[in-house]
Each structure stands twice: as C-alpha cells, then as structure tokens.
Amino acid sequence: MPLPRPPRRRSRASLGLLVAWLVAAVAVLTGCTTAPLDVGAIDDPATAHLRDGPRVADLPNDDPVPVETAPQASPRADRIIAIDRNGTLGATVFALGLGPKVVAVGGSTTFPAAAGLPVVTDPGHAINVEKVLAQRPTVVLAARDSTPAGILDQLRAAGLDVAEFTGDRSIAGTPALIRDVAKALGAQAAGERLVARTQGQIDAARRSLPDPTGDPTMAFLYIRGDRLILLAGPGSGADDLIAGLGGKDAGTEAGLTAAFTMVSTESLMRADPDVILVMTQGAESVGGLDGVAALPAVAGTGAGRARRIIAMEETEILAFGPDTGLVLRSLGEAIYR
To answer: What's the CATH code, domain 18-61+212-335?
Structure first.
C-alpha cells in the first residue's frame, strides 16, 4: 500500500493490545517439512484461479446492518454492555437491531456506530469493574475467557446481571452464538431472522468460490512491525477462515501446534504459501501491502513473488459474527479470479 482507502474510525489500541496475548503463545517454528511448491508453474492447480497482486478486501458497510429496527426484547436488554476480545458480541447486538440499547462496549467494538460509546476495558482487554458499574447496565454480555481471571464473578458479586458466552469463534459456530445472544436479550425472533440472513450469506459466499478452488495454501500473518511476525496455526480461527475460503492453512500444513507462532524467513519459505492474509493495521505497521511483500520472510514465497497479499480490517477478518458471510465473500473475490 499505503492502503487505497481512508482508515476507518476504529481504535488502533484494540487489536494492538492483542500483542501481549499473542506473544504469550509464541514458540519457535521447528520441524517444518512442507516442501516448497512451484507456485510459478502455469499449470499448478493450486494457483490457476488466483489473482496476482495485493488487494484490500472491504465489507459493503462499515457498521453491522440491523436485521430490524425495533425488535422485541426483554427488560434485561434496556441497558446493554457487550465485551469480548473479537468485538463479536457488540456487532451481534447491533445486527439484532438493539444498538440503541447499548450503553458501553469493550475496546474491540470499534465500528463507527459504536464509536461514541464508553469503553469499559483497560489495556490487554481487561474489564474495569468501576467503569462497568458507572454505566448502570441491566445486563453485561461477556466472553467466558474475559480477563482478569474471575472478573465475571466480581461483576456478579457487585450485583450485576452477567450473561456468559463462549470465546471460541468459527464459521460453524456463528449461528449458535447469534442465537445465544438473542436469547440472553429476549430477542429470539430477531435472532432467528439474523441467523437466516447470516447463514444465507455464508452459503452464497461458498457458492461464489471457484469449483474446484485448487486448494491453495494460505497463510495468515499477524504483523506488528518487522520484528513481530506470527504465523497462525490450528485453533487460531484463521485456520477455519482459510478452510472456508477453499484453501489449506499454511500453519497447520507446516506442523504448528500453537495458535500463533513466531516465524523466521526460512520457516515461512518452507511453508511457501500461495496467498497471505493480513490485518490492514498490521500491514500499515510495515509500510502497507508493498511493505508486507518486501519482508524477507515473505519475499521468497510464492505469495510474495506474485504479491498475493490480501488485507482486511482487524475488527472484521476474525470476528466470525453476523458479517461472516460478507467477510468470506469479500476475501474470496480478492483471492480468486
């Protein structure tokens, strides 16, 4: 890049704070035996349908689109706080049509419609009890893996109504998460409409992929400057996203066991992805998509040589919320011819 679009009004702190979490999962990539692919071969089925060159994959709307404007809900939904590491809970509440009932959010809920709301998390996504209490919520929606440890029990001890949700995110788990959020808010009818819309978009995105896709190898890189480059692997969410895009996850193929692992130039070249996915903000930290392609760890790969670097906003690409189908569609159109 620089990226061919103005930056959205999103908090840079939200995903930048993930560094502490990701670095905790870092291990040296060893034992990688994946042989380099001849990605330059014209008849290679893995690359036959791939677009060359860098791209930014955008969603049609910056904000979640409400499935209805005034959904029926319970009194529990009068003053909602939504907090999770991915920002998925907040996006789901807004997509249900209950955005006007949200009084505060976590630091990862940064789409424009939520930009003016108080943020009740501190650095590292830690929930701040005092900030939560100050908003007088009727319900707090939060992931079970919220930090610090025991924080949800502290909120309950303070007299708050807390609804817990899984912190795992996946394409297949999206409908269940939407239903769980809708049930917690007494908005089951809106929840079913949102599930139908979301599943329809997921199905349409899958139908739009080439058949066959050629099973290209795709790597998801978490980048924060040229000294922090992590390769996603099993359990990261990126592996599920890549499977949904008709590809093979480079980290899994390389034998990674951790969700995110520090990579060297040699190890990524051995994994030799055909496509590299990054967060927009990560790309900006090394000078844009051109900067990503020029990184020593990337330049020698098939993706680097063909400059197949695809970026998407950090608050969208691994959210697995109500826009999951739109994410798949946008990335698929950026990856395939």
So the answer is: 3.40.50.1980
